[in-house]
């Protein structure tokens, strides 16, 4: 078989399957959601809404998932992972929607090398199963080198920003990297309500 015929066998126009994010406006921004089989890093301050975004991703109805909680209140359905080494996480990761809250705690307790090793193993697992892993990282507590390693390990990266202007709080999220696609050149405004994060279906150019 010559190279030309092999090229012709490759399907054209195939789009990667997407898993909805749990946030309508973010789904629109990402053309459907996160590519299946990928790792997503969400980062920001503890008050930015990253934990709410992770919980909404995990709670999308109709699909099984796993929420590994190691530095917060363990709610119904979550797994208390506070006393577990990251090497013990993989057997617990069931379903298509996996959340680690937070990876920052893993870095602090076990070091950056242990955290990156877990991400490498998790990437292989989610790719093989077509699942998605979302992990939370908090700003202001990691060294530049640690942040660089975490950012490079993620297939998709979303930053949650909070700015105070006089008497108003402005919240936006920025998609810095998305697997197999160009990152949107827009900030997505959102608010935090009793139901969680509600993102605008319109966004503004960065």
Instruction: Profile the largest sheet.
Output: 10 strands, mixed
How many structural domains does the protein architecture include?
1
What is the level-2 CATH architecture name?
3-Layer(aba) Sandwich
In terms of per-residue confidence, which ranges show pLDDT below 50 for 5 or more consecutive residues? Answer: 1-12
- What is the level 1 CATH name? Alpha Beta
Q: Which percent range describes the beta-strand content?
A: 25-35%
Number of helices: 6
Verbal overview:
- The chain is α/β, with parallel strands linked by helices.
- The protein has one domain (about 35-190): 3-Layer(aba) Sandwich (Rossmann fold).
- About 30% of the residues lie in helices and about 30% in strands.
- The protein is built from 6 helices and 12 strands.
- It has helices spanning about 5-10, 25-30, 50-60, 105-110, 110-130, 145-155, and strands at about 20, 35, 40-45, 65-70, 80, 95-100, 130-140, 155-165, 170-175, 185-195, 195-200, 205.
- The strands form 2 sheets. Strands 3, 4, 5, 6, 7, 8, 9, 10, 11 and 12 form a 10-stranded mixed sheet that branches. Strands 1-2 form a two-stranded antiparallel sheet.
- Strand 9 (about 170-175) and strand 10 form a beta hairpin.
- Helix 4 crosses helix 5 and helix 5 runs parallel beside helix 6 (about 145-155).
- The longest helix has 18 residues, at about 110-130.
- The protein is globular, with a radius of gyration of 18 Å.
């Amino acid at each position: 078989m010559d190279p030309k015929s092999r090229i012709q066998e490759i399907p054209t126009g195939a789009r990667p399957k997407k898993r909805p994010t749990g946030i309508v406006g973010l789904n629109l921004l990402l053309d459907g959601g996160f590519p299946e089989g990928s790792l997503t890093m969400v980062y920001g301050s503890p008050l930015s809404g990253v934990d709410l975004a992770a919980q909404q991703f995990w709670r999308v109805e109709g699909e099984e998932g796993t929420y590994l909680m190691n530095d917060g209140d363990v709610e119904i359905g979550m797994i208390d992972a506070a006393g577990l080494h990251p090497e013990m996480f993989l057997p617990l990761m069931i379903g298509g929607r996996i959340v680690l809250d937070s990876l920052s705690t893993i870095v602090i307790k076990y070091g950056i090398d242990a955290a990156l090793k877990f991400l490498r193993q998790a990437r292989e697992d989610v790719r093989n199963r077509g699942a998605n892993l979302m992990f939370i990282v908090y700003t202001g507590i990691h060294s530049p080198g640690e942040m660089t390693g975490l950012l490079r390990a993620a297939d998709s990266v979303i930053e949650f920003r909070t700015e105070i202007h006089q008497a108003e709080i402005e919240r936006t999220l920025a998609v810095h990297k998305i697997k197999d696609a160009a990152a949107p050149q827009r900030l997505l405004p959102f608010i935090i309500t009793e139901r969680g994060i509600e993102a605008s279906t319109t966004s503004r150019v960065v």
